[in-house]
Amino acid sequence: MSDALLSIVGVSAGYDAVDVIHGVDMQAKRGEITCLLGANGAGKSTLIKTIFGVLRPRSGSIHFDGVEISRLESHEIVRRGLVAVPEGSRVFPKMSVLDNLRVGAYLERSPTVIAANLERVFALFPRLHERIDQFAGTLSGGERSMLSIGRSLMCRPSMLVIDEPSLGLSPRFVKENFGIIRDLCTDDCAILLVEQNARQTLDISEYGYLMSQGHITCHGAASELRHSPDVARAYFGGQDSEQTNNEAMT
């Protein structure tokens, strides 16, 4: 993969004296959706924390847009255009939709730019505009997910790292969310999509990685991973590979 916006090389990290991820090599290109798949406990969340400076890598390097970021503080990483959308549609429940969005613009000083970014978010998510003065805690799960993504867009990121966007959502909202994520990916904003939902994630991704027990066990074009027995084994263990591959993709 060339033209990498995010490049992770040989990264190991963990908690206390125990490594959770081991020698991770991974790239995400400009203008594409790259996905990181893996069952619960595979190490995906640890990798995200390492990318954003919450954990320091014990070995290896992380570059974003050509700059080494593995020793930067989280706010410095965000300032460079790498922004996380955390799992669980985390919002400030006792703040209005508008105030939640304004929190996402904390790095921006210009009222004109903030207003333009708000307009863009409301164009993407008209439902948020309809609920502009409503407390975020009263929104549905799907609406909170929209708000979480919208808040992250308020600082005009070059890349969004979206963690488990299907978590806790109904099938209807999952489908809607993934359609929105697909539309968000442009030449100006790449996406790293971290998910357990293999089928729908691969449907909207260009390239994918599979993580198991802290290791990247396979990677390739999303169209190839869609039918990979390795993906099925990661989710269902040692069952019959043809059967589990069908189950993993439904």
Whole-number tally of structural domains: 1
Structural class: alpha/beta
- Please state the average pLDDT score: 90
Strand element count:
10
Q: In the CATH hierarchy, what is the architecture at level 2?
A: 3-Layer(aba) Sandwich
The coarse overall form would be globular
Q: Write down the CATH topology.
A: Rossmann fold
Binned strand content: 25-35%
Low-confidence stretches: 238-248
Query: Termini, distance in Å?
Result: 28 Å
- Output the radius of gyration: 18 Å
Largest sheet report: 6 strands, mixed
Order of H and E elements: EEEHEEHEHHHHEHEHEEHHH
Q: What portion of residues is helical?
A: 25-40%
Adjacency order of strands in the biggest sheet: 6-7-8-3-9-10
Q: Number of helical runs?
A: 11
CATH class category name: Alpha Beta
CATH homology group:
P-loop containing nucleotide triphosphate hydrolases
Please tell me about this protein's structure.
The protein is an alpha/beta fold and 250 residues long. It has one domain: 3-Layer(aba) Sandwich (Rossmann fold). The protein is 38% helix and 26% strand. The protein has 11 helices and 10 strands. The chain has a 6-stranded mixed beta sheet, with helices on both faces. Strands 2-1-4-5 form a 4-stranded antiparallel beta sheet, covered by helices on one side. Strand 1 (4-15) and strand 2 (18-29) form a beta hairpin. Helix 3 runs parallel beside helix 6 (141-153). The longest helix is centred in the middle third of the chain and has 14 residues, at 111-124. It is globular, with a radius of gyration of 18 Å. The two termini are 28 Å apart. Mean pLDDT is 90; it is low at 238-248.
